[in-house]
UniProtKB/TrEMBL annotation, chain A:
GO CC annotations, alphabetized: AP-4 adaptor complex; clathrin adaptor complex; cytoplasmic side of trans-Golgi network transport vesicle membrane; cytosol; trans-Golgi network
Higher taxonomy: Eukaryota, Metazoa, Chordata, Craniata, Vertebrata
Coiled-coil portions: none
Protein's membrane topology: Peripheral membrane protein
Any one biological process term the GO annotation gives: vesicle-mediated transport
UniProt keyword annotations, A-Z: Golgi apparatus, Membrane, Protein transport, Transport
Region feature Disordered, mapped onto this chain: 579-619
Cell location: Golgi apparatus, trans-Golgi network membrane
Protein's name in the database: AP complex subunit beta
Keyword Chloroplast (UniProt): no
The Beta-adaptin appendage C-terminal subdomain domain, residue ranges: 637-749
Subunit structure: Adaptor protein complex 4 (AP-4) is a heterotetramer composed of two large adaptins (epsilon-type subunit AP4E1 and beta-type subunit AP4B1), a medium adaptin (mu-type subunit AP4M1) and a small adaptin (sigma-type AP4S1). Interacts with TEPSIN; this interaction requires the presence of a functional AP-4 complex. Interacts with GRIA2; probably indirect it mediates the somatodendritic localization of GRIA2 in neurons.
Automatic annotation (TrEMBL), chain B:
Classification via Gene3D superfamilies: 3.30.450.60, Mu homology domain, subdomain B
Keyword field contains Protein transport: yes
Source species: Taeniopygia guttata (Zebra finch)
Protein name (database record): MHD domain-containing protein
Taxonomic lineage: Eukaryota, Metazoa, Chordata, Craniata, Vertebrata
Pfam families referenced in this protein's UniProt entry, alphabetically: Adap_comp_sub
Amino acid sequence: MPYLGGEEAQRELRRALSNPHVQADPARYRGAVLRVIRLMSQGADVSGLFPEMVKAGAVADVVQKKLVSFYVRAQAPRQPQLALLAVNSLRKDCAHPSPAVRGLALRTMCGLRMPGIQEYLQQPLVNGLRDKASYVRRVAVLGCAKMVKLQGDCEVDGALVNELYSLLRDQDPIVVVNCLRALEEILKKEGGVVINKPIAHHLLNRMPDLDQWGQSEVLTFLLRYKPRSEDELFDILNLLDGYLKSSSPSVVMAATKLFLVLAREYPDVQADVLVRVKGPLLSACTSESRELCFTALCHVRQILRSLPGHFSSHYKKFFCSYSEPHYIKCQKMEVLCELVNDENVQQVLEELKGYCTDVSEELAQGAIFAIANIARTYTEQCVGILTELLGLQQEHITSAVVRAFRDLAWLCPQCTDAVCQALPGCEDTIQDSEGKQALIWLLGTHGEKIPNAPYVLEDFVESVKSESFPAVKMELLTALLRLFLARPAECQDMLGRLLYYCIEEEQDMAVRDRGLFYYRLLQSGVEEVRRVLCSPKSDPSMGLLGDQSKQPVNAWASEFNTLATIYGRERWALATAQQPVEPSHSCPPCADSSSRDTESLVSEGNKEVPEVHPDTPMSEGNKELLKAHPDAGSLSLIPDVSLTAEQFEKTWLSLDTCCQLSLPWCGPVHADTIQTALRVVHIQTIAMSKAGAQPWKAYLSAQDDSGCLFLTELLLEAADSELQVSVKQNEAKPEALQSFISALRTVLEAVAGLES
Amino acid sequence: MLSQLFILSSKGDLLIHRDFRGGSPVPVPEFFRHGVEQPPPFQSLGGLHFAHVRHGGLFFGASTEGDASPFTIIEFLNRLVTLLRDFCGPLSEKSLGMNLALVGELLEELVDFGHIQTTTPEVLRSLVQSEPEVPKPFSLLDLGSVGLFGAETQQSRVAPGAAAARPLPPARGDQPPRPELFVDVLERLSVVIAANGSPLKVEVQGEIRLKSFLPPGTELRIGLTEEFCVGKSELRGYGTPVRVDECSFHSSVSLAEFGSGRVLSLRPEPGEMTLMQYQVQDEIPAPLPFRLFPTARAQPPNRIHLYLKLRCDLPPKSQAINVCLQLPVPKGVSSLSQELSSPDQSAELDLGSRSIRWEIPKIQGGSQLSALFKVGSQNPPKFPQKSPKKFPKSRAAPSSRLSSRWGPKKPPKFPKIPPKFPKSRAAPSSPLCSRYGPKKLPKSPKIPPKFPKSRAAPSSPLCSRYGPKKLPKSPKIPPKFPKSRAAPSSRPSSRYSPKKLPKSPKIPPKFPKSRAAPSSRPSSSWICRLWAVPGAWSWVLPTPPSSCQKPQNSPKNAQIPQKFP
């Protein structure tokens, strides 16, 4: 976009910059330079002033030098030839007596993103690394990383790496941290900076000198270090104990994560750490900064997933206040759902009830679904509250309540009677598609308990022509057919009319096909219809929605204090899958994800409502998943691994378990299904118990293209509804392990879905 | 590691943008520009993750490739805001534009190649050399602040002094800055009030904020009232206790004299800091600052009359300023007519948030204001009282407990009507801080420039109240101190140990110990949380004897606030 008067302004500025009178007066000179910067930040093209600006950088005024440096770095990629002009004066500045000027010049040179600059950089950088001023060393260390990034694929200079490793012993704490950061980037391909015992201990000793940013960064780097012995491990924990009480939340969280990861095998230590982090987390949750509050709430939810009772006594802290933004209220409601227990359920429900009448529809519906969530445990009270809400006859409230009822009738069959009693009268208030579908489903499935069900459905049939949502029509077809089986006398006539309409007049293909299908089904006899339509109405053992099993702490310890916790696991996988630079390590996105990838992840996550479509078998989605992604993730496993049972056994016994997880499982095991499914993703089955054996065991092996072996044991105890998976790896590659596990998990969950 | 840093205006214009890593394909995301009211703090777009914090209508955002800790990003952005405020004065689009060079310099030193370098104000002050420019408070365009013929308007009379908001002077300034200290007490109240006026839930979150222009290293002693106690169990002194449930202090505060004398001592760094945070729940000793008496009457066919009476229960000598009351209205409301009790108040219907905003520039303690709002809509709003004919009788009366929370007469669309308490610093909106000092805003007890450097001579007015004599019996709770930084082996009992072994061998540091000069200043950690520490507070301002009395009820029809002579 041409800036208004851009040409004119540029000419005038050039005149000013090259005017000797202006140059003689530092204030006016700086003013002119500042105007150039201002124009640039407004988006105007000021690249024509490059020579004048480089000249302006040669004055003694440091502020002006900084401004010019900013200009030069921004413009250099567009003007590589002219930028070499600047290099000369910058090299001169690198020998300036003032460290601030030296540092600035070095930073500017490293920041010129143009090809061919490396040869000019080498010498000043080496000098900078040995400079006596710590300010210059800080700049030089990061400069090395910038240079290597510019070089791209070239071989990394071993001498440089060694120099940086030795600078880890620098006196200045920021230089130390910068060295870690630079090495991490330079050695990215080789897995980042290596933290061995001497380095780890050195860093531990330097911790008190660092500021909060350095501390949290070093704590993150220390995650890589694996202590050799138990004693060493506990020494480290004791040494770092103070950081759990740091006044900076980022240090506390980094320390917590380190503790959780290091104490992987000591659940009591982990529990103790989580108790101690409660205070800082709670105070972050009530912090004035809403964003900090949100972040803390996400982590509270993560902890609650393993320790449901952890925050129960503090439930009042999670009550929403009026002026909070939506994203916080939604998080708080989810937290409230998860921490509810016998003692506080009354107060929590009382509070949630208040939110149901919020002015914001989104929030009100969120609160209703939160109550519905609690209803899975405290059914009676919650159904009472939801029924009361129907009395308000607000469109969005009624719709949400009916949707909640549908899920409840499906999940907790014992409350069906109460739900059925509450239903009459809702049909006039509901306008939206989702609500109508839910109501129709309820009327169809539990119609024998609702006296006026046929008449309500009749109203829908009457107005089917003006109905705008095809999904509602489909639902209506199914519901009416179901009700016809239960109360044929009342429904026969209108079913006929509906089928006639759907087959003869309906425009929507899917509805028409569904109508035809039911028509033909009816032709084959009522018994047949009954067999197809009245399959079991609810099956709690599916565990799909009621998946509230406790996760072990280790399952999320590595995600603590990362963005994965903020987004939630699925959305995080989705977000990283789009990442063009780095291939995704987590399981591939679901088939329907492409349409929503630009939407905001978090808010969507908050709105998410468990959706049940009893008419679609649950396993369909999983089947698709399995077919669509045969090679699950970026990890490429070799198809044929020649590993004999003896070799397997030997390797298995010599390795330690890297990862253990448990997956929900129900019913018997079909060995063939599992074996076939695993073969699709190139996981070989070495040995397997006979079907029906108790406990059932299977041993699997896989190898990726870098030669890393993954050995897996599946164990299903008799009474247990969980499949225990333990994975061993012959090389420590956490990323590969992560993607292997996610692939394995995808397959096993898909198989579990198929079988139940 | 940050990829970009940006500051956006409330309209989504890019004010400041830095691309640290180069070649990030994604510019600043569009979602800030579409006028989203409350975008969630973390969003993801094209493989980059955007985090932002919001301050004073501006968005301060950063993007990262995904390996960063969310706590670090948010904390850094908050820190950035504080630093910018310290360096540039009050933050606004205008002041950022004027201080472009300064902000540029600051960002340069804060972040290099996406890595946070340092945020200590002292260090930054020595590195940053531009002079701050403060937008002039008066301008011809801004006529709102000028009355007719230059007379003072209500607003200019009650607005707090801008002195505290000015930026820190540069380290190499010509003349030393005036040594001043500003102390603010900020309290946030969240209250849910039942229909009968009794508070259902009360929560006060308060903090004492310090903005110091003193030379670094000055020792400061702040005395709090001796009746201060923390938690329910502790009782001190003989007067009415000033009780808080929890309190925590900045990490640089020395608590040595707390147990006995309720004295905080510290050496504040120049700039802003939160000295102390406290929370009070459920029982607050003073009456709530405001009380609202709403009456709603439906006027068929499509109007509602809302009669609101707002009583200010502050002590009669205090006043609340910039009070804003927000009242949600049913959807469908399209018009508003109003009768307010004095001309300086204003009210408007905000269709976006479906609420009425009633703004009151000043309300005297003990007085009462009233307003009559007539809201109307094109379509008659649905009231649950009007039972639709179709339904059985039992449904018609929504006598549910839900609506009884707000009184049976009101339509259920009126949820809690929270009196919105002014957030401005100057407003003594809380009962707690209104205890101290009639009419004086809690802002800025100015402290004379001379500061005694030694503790022995407490000639400063701040600590003059607290002599050596102490209350005879004061149950001492030993303050919990953070554990020493010493090596783990030096501690007799270690917290984490394998169950079997009590001994924990020393970690032999393999590197030569090259700690040449450990900086004497503690690291710039922010707020320290010490739950068990007994703390107390009181101000320098003398406590007036009448301040604890209940506000006298104003005469029945005193709807017009008392005017100044």
